[in-house]
Amino acid sequence: MAAITPPPSRIYLLRHAEAAWAAPGQHDFDRPLSEKGYADAEIVADKAADKGYRPDLLLSSTAARCRDTADAVHRAMGSTLDLRFVDELYNASPDIYLEIIDAQEAAGSVMLVGHNPTMEQTLEVLIGHEALCQALPTGFPAAGLAVLDYDTRLAGWRLVDFVID
After folding, report:
1. In contact, 80 and 58? CB cutoff 8 Å
2. DSSP bridge pairs for 85
3. pLDDT per position as a tens digit, 55-90
4. What residues are paired with 110 via a beta bridge?
5. Rg of the Cα atoms in the chain
6. Does residue 66 lie within any of the structural domains?
7. Domain with 82 in it: what CATH number?
8. Residue 155 pLDDT > 50, yes or no?
9. Residue 1: exposed, middle, or buried by beta-carbon count in 10 A (0-12, 13-18, 19+)?
10. How far is the CA of 102 from the CAs of 2, 11, 108, 135, in angstroms?
11. Which of 56, 97, 109, 120 lies in disulfide reach of 140, CB 3.0 to 4.6 Å?
């Protein structure tokens, strides 16, 4: 499934920001962002917008912490940004993430807001193990945004930027 070719020609992979600990009886799905997570989500969204990163389509897991992160991106990039929530992004495999990206044929660029370890595994499938280890030696951080472009010379995806708070 790693053979995703344009469109989209740009993929943004955004791991949700830091989540709060679950309250007694609270399901993992319902955990919102922590105070730090809210701040980090706003910072990364603003940095991305300042760099001119604006997807045609923003797809987010329906988990509370992803919705909160996606809302920060939506605020930073404007209300005209097409934002959709996708149940299948919660507890999904990298293959599901890739299938969802590949299905967005009408979008020139797509941003996924999702979870680790799937986010890191999806990045690895797209750019390769060596490139992943070189770019993110300590792993994919919370509120990290990977920006990938399709390189026609290489006939593959290349990490062009990684935005953190």
Report:
1. no
2. 60
3. 999 999 999 999 999 999 999 998 788 999 999 999
4. 11, 57
5. 15
6. yes
7. 3.40.50.1240
8. yes
9. middle
10. 10, 10, 11, 24
11. 120
In tens, the pLDDT along 4-48 reads: 767 788 999 999 999 999 889 989 898 999 999 999 999 999 999
Furthest-apart CA atoms within the chain: distance in Å = 52
Question: Are 112 and 14 a contacting pair, CB within 8 Å?
Answer: yes
Interior CA angle at 32 toward 147 and 68, to 5°?
45
> What is the bridge-based pairing of β-strands 156-163 and 145-151?
antiparallel
Encoding tokens for residue 81?
């940004």
Q: What is the number of other CB atoms lying within 10 angstroms of the CB of residue 39?
A: 16
DSSP secondary structure, 19-34, as one string: BPPPPTT--GGG--B-
Return d(Cα 23, Cα 31) in angstroms, integer: 8
Asked if residue 48 belongs to a domain, the reply is yes
The tokens describing 48, both together, are: 């991305």
* DSSP strand pairing (109-114 vs 10-15): parallel
Annotated binding site for substrate: 65
Look up the pTM and report it: 0.94
* Cβ atoms of residues 85 and 67 within 8 Å: yes
**Residues of each annotated binding site:** 65
In this predicted structure, what is the pLDDT of residue 4? 74
